[in-house]
Amino acid sequence: MGWENEHLHAFRTKERGIEEDEELELAIGDLLEKEGSALTYEYDFGDGWVHKITLQKM
User: Fold this and answer.
1) Residue 25 and residue 10 in contact, taking contact as beta carbons nearer than 8 Å
2) Of the candidates 50, 55, 26, the residue with the CA atom closest to the CA atom of residue 38
């Protein structure tokens, strides 16, 4: 996408939201554990770029 980590961003699942300032070190597999599970990635809160990421197959 060409983004350079210059804006606030967050990953969110049904279970929890993870803001960038939490500095958690998680693998994507820690958030998407089974096929069909999904998370939302929001980049640049002011402009509201929102993406849904769904694990289709393991």
Assistant:
1) no
2) 55
Of 55, 44, 47, residue with least CA distance to 13: 55
Structure tokens at 50: 């929102």
* Residue pair 9/32 in contact by the 8 Å Cβ criterion: no
> Interior CA angle at 49 toward 39 and 16, to 5°?
30
pLDDT value, residue 6: 79
Q: Is the pTM of this model over 0.70?
A: no
Strand partners, 12: 17, 40
Tokens of 27: 């693998």
For residue 12, what pLDDT band results from cuts at 50, 70 and 90?
confident
